Amino acid sequence: MRRSSPSPLGGIVLAALLLTSVAALAAPPTTAVEPVNETLHGVELVDPYRWLEGSDAPEIAEPMPELDARVDAWTAAQNAHTRGVLDNLAGRDRLETRLRELLTVGSVGAPDVRGGRYFYLERQGEEAQPVLYVRERHDGEPRTLLDPNQLDAEGLTAISWAEPSQDGEWVAFGLYRGGDENATLYLMRVDDGEWLADEIPGKVTGVSWLPDSTGFIYRRLSDVQNPYSGIIQAHKVGRHHRQDPVLFEQYKEGPLATTWGPYPVVDPNARWMAVVYFTGTDSNDLYLYDLEKWRQTGELQKMELVAGEKARFGPFFADGGLLVQTTLGAPNHRIAAVDLANPAPENWREVVPESPYAVIQGISVAQGRLAVRYLEKAATRIELFDLAGRSQGDLELPGIGTASLTTEHDSREAFLGFESFNEPDSIYRVDLGSGERALWARPEVPVDPTQITVEQVFYSSKDGTEVPMFLVHRQGLERDGKNPTILRGYGGFNISQTPRFRATDFPWLEAGGVYAVANLRGGGEYGEEWHRAGMLEKKQNVFDDFIAAAEWLIANEYTNPDQLGILGGSNGGLLTGAALVQRPELFSAVVSAVPLLDMLRYQHFLMARYWVPEYGTAENPEHLPFLLAYSPYQNVEKEVDYPAVLLTAGANDTRVHALHARKMAARLQAATSNDTEKEPVLLWVEGDVGHGRGKPLALRQRDAADLLGFLGWQLALDWTGGAPATASVQP
Question: For residue 24, what pLDDT is reported?
Answer without folding.
Answer: 43
